[in-house]
């Protein structure tokens, strides 16, 4: 993207951030024995899945739009 970060790069950063966050939360949950922190780690896993979907979908969007507009 002109003058900014590309969508794919932003999605990649989001994946790395969420993976790191999950790892830290799982470690904290194990160390403290906190089910609440483990629950937060699982919630962050859903965010990671969404980030992976965005990372895969962003490059495919132009192809999908081209296919849809042909009909």
Describe the structure.
It is a single chain. The protein has 2 helices and no strands. The two termini are 28 Å apart. The radius of gyration is 17 Å and the shape is elongated. The longest helix has 36 residues, at 35-70. 87% of the residues lie in helices and 0% in strands. Helix 1 packs antiparallel against helix 2. The mean pLDDT is 89. With 71 residues, the chain is mostly helical.
Given as residue ranges, the uncertain stretches (5+ residues, pLDDT < 50) are none
Average per-residue pLDDT, rounded, comes to: 89
H/E topology pattern: HH
What structural class do helix, strand and pairing data support? mainly alpha
Biggest sheet details: none
In a few lines, what is going on in this structure?
It contains 2 helices and no strands. The protein has 71 residues and is an all-alpha fold. Helix 1 packs antiparallel against helix 2.
Topology:
Blueprint: H1 7-32, H2 35-70
How would you describe this structure in keywords?
mainly alpha
């Amino acid at each position: 993207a002109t003058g900014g970060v590309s969508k794919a790069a932003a999605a990649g950063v989001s994946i790395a951030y969420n993976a790191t966050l999950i790892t830290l939360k799982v470690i904290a949950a194990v160390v403290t024995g906190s089910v609440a922190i483990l629950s937060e780690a699982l919630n962050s896993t859903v965010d990671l899945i969404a980030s992976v979907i965005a990372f895969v979908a962003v490059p495919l969007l132009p192809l999908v739009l081209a296919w849809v507009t042909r009909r």
